[in-house]
Amino acid sequence: MMAIKLPARPKTQVRPKAQARPEASGKSSKPLARAPSLAEQTRIILEDKIVSLELEPGSMWSEGDLANLTGFGRTPVREALKRLESLHLVRIVQRHGVQITPINVEQQLLLLETRRELERLVAGRAARRRSESQSARCTEFARGLRDAGRRGDMVAFRQLYSEAQQLILEAAGNPFAAAAVSPLYALSKRFYVLHHRTAQDLRLACEYHAKTLLAVAARDESAARLAVDAVLDYVEGFTRSTLAAPS
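The structure corresponding to this sequence follows.
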């Protein structure tokens, strides 16, 4: 019986393993965060000057004035102003310049209605989803806010509160809620900066915000939402009290 000769099986080509890219100087290969654009840097500077009342509510400015004030050219100033207009912090008046929006108590109350619903969602989700490192940072920010309140340090409060808000938004992991609530913060802070000296209650405000951060750190969704309600009850009462205050 004739043996059947099978064709030789083709050799499998083994692809060379990809060599790991060496890390320079032992540093992580994680890409560096991109530096903010000139327009974004300009926006940050102008927003801070508006919130701190260095640029007075209702005042008029030209693009040239703001370029001189920030040290940036007219193009990034123009782009920054478009963003600030969407945040309701400025109003661009054709052929007249830029107006820093006046502070309106009635609009502030409507803003707080919106903040309450959005912040309850954000704080609850942040408590559910926060990482261990985010929990530690929440606790650190709560401690820093309480210290700023004891010292009556408005500058430190504004800085810590802004960073803490950003942390909670990141922990919540909901970019749609973040995009909706973020524009409301600057208007609220500007209102508080204007009136807090009359109330003399920075320590109390810091305590309310610290409790929200600690509830998120403890992964307690119910407590986080209740803490937000307490914050907004306080802020709404503070806002309404300015209606009766002498001008």
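The first strand starts at residue 60 and ends at 61.
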